[in-house]
Amino acid sequence: MVDVVIRRYGPADEQAFFAMLEGEGDDWREYVGPAGRPAYARAMRSSIAYLLLVDGELCGYARCRDDDGFGVYVHDLLVRGPHRGRHLGRALMERVCADAPGQTVYVMSDVDPYYEKLGYARAGSIFVVTPGA
C-alpha cells in the first residue's frame, strides 16, 4: 500500500523543496538559480503551498494565491516524472479545492493538455478547476 500525504509547506521544508526542484532540470532552473532561489523562497512563504509526499519522499507540490475571496489561483503544479500517471496532480488540485470551499479555483497554465485531460473548463487563458471532474 502506498502512503500519500499532502500537507502545507512550511519554512523547515525549504531545503528539501529546492533539492527536489534542482532535480527537475531546465524547466525549473529560474527558480533554483542564484537570482531566482531567494525570490522563489519568498514566493513560497507568502503563498498557499502544498507538498506531495509518497512513502515519505517529496515528489510534488502546488503553489497558489488567494485573491481575497475572488478565487484561488494555482501558479505552479509539479509531480516528479517517476510519480506521474497516478492521479497525484489531481489529488493536489482536489486538496486546493477542499481548502477553499465556496471559491473558484483557477490554474495559470503552461501545460494546457494536462488540465484539459482532467476535464477543467478553459476560461480565457486560464482553467477553472472542477473537483472530481
Automatic annotation (TrEMBL):
Name of a matching Pfam family: Acetyltransf_1
SUPFAM superfamilies in UniProt: Acyl-CoA N-acyltransferases (Nat)
InterPro entries associated with the record: Acyl_CoA_acyltransferase, GNAT_dom
Residues of the N-acetyltransferase domain: 4-133
GO MF terms, alphabetically ordered: acyltransferase activity, transferring groups other than amino-acyl groups
UniProt-recorded name of the protein: N-acetyltransferase domain-containing protein
